[in-house]
């Protein structure tokens, strides 16, 4: 029972980290901080604009695999991995 | 592909749609707020020579005079444009410009040309261009 509780708590922690990164990258970098970030150039593009157009999507895709990797590690730790 | 990857791939599009809708609401809200932006001359300004560009980030307007008709041409459609001619005593006369062929062009007959030609070398001008509650303002000088 305690094992299940711990597994679920760590799972929720991962989800909140993912949601926080999702919010910071999409709303934070793409909207709220777009003007200061636009002062920085990345390959000729303004950084705020780049995050709004491409950077956030790259981060979302990376988050998918990071979350999956972390969950697999968690599964192993709690001996509930897929066979 | 294990269950966690499948779940993350399934959830991601929903988050993207929520992000898209949230951004849309945020930008619409922001656009409706009255905000002031300062326009700065982009290079030397010669209104009579039809060469005077003011800019603020992506937004640019070109102020020019053609035979007594003062024209403002902008990169984004405007809701209104007011031009002020300022004399040497800092007294200004306001001219509300009318929409030309589309909201990118605003114009009005003004005494700018006569005043400018009568002035020694430069004419002081002010402009207020309104877009969705946002006001782009500038005080600038046109050289002869």
TrEMBL record, chain A:
Residues 5-81 form the Sodium symporter small subunit domain. Keywords: Membrane, Transmembrane, Transmembrane helix. InterPro entries: Na_symporter_ssu. The chain crosses the membrane at residues 12-35, 47-67. This is DUF4212 domain-containing protein. The lineage of its organism: Bacteria, Pseudomonadati, Pseudomonadota, Gammaproteobacteria, Oceanospirillales.
From TrEMBL, chain B:
The keyword Membrane applies. The chain crosses the membrane at residues 7-27. Keywords: Membrane, Transmembrane, Transmembrane helix. This is Uncharacterized protein. It comes from Aliikangiella coralliicola. The lineage of its organism: Bacteria, Pseudomonadati, Pseudomonadota, Gammaproteobacteria, Oceanospirillales.
């Amino acid at each position: 029972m305690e094992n299940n509780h711990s597994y679920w708590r760590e799972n929720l922690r991962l989800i909140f980290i993912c949601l926080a990164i999702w919010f910071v990258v999409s709303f934070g970098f793409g909207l709220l901080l777009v003007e200061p970030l636009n002062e920085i150039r990345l390959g000729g593009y303004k950084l705020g604009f780049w995050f709004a157009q491409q950077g956030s999507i790259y981060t979302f895709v990376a988050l998918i695999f990071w979350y999956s990797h972390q969950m697999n590690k968690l599964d192993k730790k709690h001996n509930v991995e897929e066979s | 592909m294990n269950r966690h990857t499948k779940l993350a791939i399934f959830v991601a599009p929903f988050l993207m749609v929520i992000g898209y809708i949230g951004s849309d609401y945020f930008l619409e809200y922001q656009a409706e707020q009255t905000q002031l932006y300062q326009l700065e001359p982009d290079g030397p300004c010669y209104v009579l020579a039809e060469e005077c560009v003011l800019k603020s980030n992506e937004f640019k307007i070109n102020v020019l005079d053609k035979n007594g008709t003062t024209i403002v041409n902008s990169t984004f459609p405007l809701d209104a444009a007011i031009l002020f001619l300022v004399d040497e005593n800092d007294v200004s006369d306001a001219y509300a410009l009318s929409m030309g062929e589309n909201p990118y062009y605003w114009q009005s007959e003004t005494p700018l040309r006569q005043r400018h030609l009568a002035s020694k070398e430069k004419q002081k001008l002010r402009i207020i261009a309104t877009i969705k509650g946002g006001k782009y303002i500038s005080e600038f000088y046109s050289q002869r």
